[in-house]
Give the backbone structure.
Amino acid sequence: MTAEINCQTGESEKNISSQTNETPPAVFAKVITVFAVGFSLFQLCAVWGAITPIVLRSIHLGAILVLAFLLHPLGGKKTGGKFTPLFVVDIVLVLASFFCCFYIVYYLNEIYSRQGDWITMDIVVGVMAVLLVLEACRRLIGWFMSIICAFFLLYAFIGPYMPYLFSHKGYSVERIATTLFLTTEGIFGVPLGVAATFVFIFVLFGAFLEVSGAGNFYINFAYALTGRFTGGPAKTSVVASGFMGSVSGSAVANVVATGSFTIPMMKKVGYRPHMAGAIESAASTGGQLMPPIMGAGAFLMAEFTETSYLTIIKIAIVPAFLYYMTVLLFVHFEAKKSGIKGQPKEKLPKLFTVLKEGIHFILPIVALVIALVNNVSPMMAGFVAVVSVYMASFLHKRSRMGFKQTIRALERGAKNAVMVSTACAAAGIIVGIVTLTGQGLNFSSLVLQLSNNIEIIAILLIGLASLVLGMGLPVTASYIVLATLAGPALLEMGVPLLVAHMIVFWYSQAANVTPPVCLASFAGAGVAGASPMKTAFSSCKMAVGLYIVPIIMAYRPILGNGPWWEVVQAMITCAAGLLAFSSALDRYLFRRATMLETILLVFAAICLFWPEMKIAGFIIPAYISDIIGAITLTGVLFMQKRYPTLSATH
């Protein structure tokens, strides 16, 4: 067991090193450590302090930018850890980051008093802050996200010259810079607010789990239970995330809470970092769709529809099951493609030994769950979790966290948070422009007009509108706006009230895992030490049920809105359709699918999803297309089993 812990610690150190792939001058190493530890301690104290949101977020951003420029210097590995002239630029950027933070904190009252009557320094500092965020984003995430942010900034200028549907009056540098930097509608908006509160605390929780050895216990415990199954640890994490998300009601909090130990567990058995983060993100997003809690939006739905919450829970069960089935299918396919096989029993950790040496680390998870169930805020629940890990470490002599281990955990937590917070700050630029130009609400209205009263087009456009709204609004707020704007349109088209609201509720979750602003994916990437955009696109694929199931709701009685035999038929055929579509999207079933098999799988999925249709006065029952789809899917299953050596190139 000791060897396993040492090995895991070595892997963790390597992961941290790989995340910080540039080498800062050695003279600053201790400075970085002191700064990172101080930053973590400040965040812990912020749980208890009544700090103004914009002040907390500005201090958080300033610290994140400082760490970003020091840990990822311009010279990169070429510096060899030595001081170079290029590093002078980084020092200038560090000082500029300090100044931007200081400006908000020191002049906050003056900034509030001159709202709309900005001085030149407000504009200069605002422009400086936007450029600093873009540069930090380029260094840590890459050019893709930076270019998207730059495009939105350009869009704010050229609105008057855009086509009618996307035009706006256009905004000056003063308006853009001050909106993005001096309000909570831009850089300091919801994304960074999420990162500066419970995301950081739970990332710190993960660091304490790792350094104390608790992470090893969870990994080895799950590995002992599931290691003999194909992709077992990842499947376990999907189920665990579903249960935890159902209780917490927050996708991002779920990612960083459960991902602290499920993501390292998946990486250990062979999942690539971005895939581990994507699996956790997709699974955690589904938590808000899974009864009994389902997030605040479900309670609002009960109020909007004047329906009992118990009814909402009942109709939500089947769609949630279909969603998690789809995620589990992708997990299985990824395990098969990557050759992640079950391990022989003799190679797995002994369950009794694992429990004997680490069962005391169950206490932090118990404390976390109790805190969440009792409606403690996610930030306070994270604080409880961190303290619980530290205290639990003293219950066994081999896991006690001394001064050095505590410092290492605090430092590691701050470093691990740099990437996700930078991504959230960059996302705030997009959020600010969407809010400033008013395109969020305008777009929602316009897409409904474009549907021309065709139900399927309206549903697809509502999904598109949810992504735009999701950039600037929390999930619950996105649901409220969509329910207000899109709900009546669906009702006029004949969609039942509960079905219309459930469609809107599902689509309001999509922004969590859909690029470019996908906080759950960014949080998963931060915990996994992976590329945020690679994680985002992978989680988008794994959460494909989030886009398909709402369409099925409109045409099939999977919400229980029909005779029991039709409900059962819809459940079975939709599950088979999702199997076919997931296999086609991943081009894998029992082996890699050929092009012909992929086409047949898509055809089978369409048939299995197809509703009852009226053509030329004749009604074609749904079971006709179901039979055709089932026969086609069975044929592909037979081909895959009968010819196991065919490759995807055929």
Observations:
- Residues 2-191 form one domain.
- Confidence is low (pLDDT under 50) at residues 1-21.
- The chain has three domains: 2-191, 199-401, 562-650.
